[in-house]
Design a protein that fits this description.
Layout: H1 3-24, H2 30-44, H3 46-61, H4 68-76, H5 78-83, H6 85-119
Helix pairs in contact: 1-2
């Protein structure tokens, strides 16, 4: 499948997701819903997935270019970052720590639940 065809498919699924979100007032970003729809289609249409592979590998090889706008956005707010770096650093540290603790706690709970089912 040609690169342009694959890009068109990606944009069609993104547009479909956007339209569904707008029409049903869903609390999910349109591109995420479009990606889920595309995943479901590719899950059942293995031939299409294999045909898309070369073009998607080419797209993924240049994925780092898509992060340039985010880097520019950060540089636009560099003054604010300089003023509030302590709060940002604390928020990043605490959110990471809380995420790790919740994940570890959930893992322990699930292991106990699964182990107790194995015993019975």
């Amino acid at each position: 499948m040609q690169f342009l065809t694959v890009m068109t498919l990606l944009l069609i699924f993104q547009l479909s997701g956007e339209l569904l979100v707008l029409s049903w007032d869903l609390p999910v970003p349109g591109p995420v819903l479009g990606m889920m729809l595309m995943f479901l289609v590719l899950l059942f249409k293995h031939k299409v997935a294999h045909q898309m592979r070369p073009a998607t590998e080419q797209l993924l090889s240049h994925l780092s270019l898509l992060f340039i706008p985010a880097g520019v956005g950060v540089m636009v707010h560099v003054v604010r970052l300089e003023q509030e770096w302590i709060a940002i650093l604390v928020a990043i540290f605490l959110s990471t720590l809380i995420g790790l603790l919740v994940t570890a706690w959930t893992m322990q709970l699930m292991m106990k639940l699964l182990h107790s089912k194995d015993i019975k």
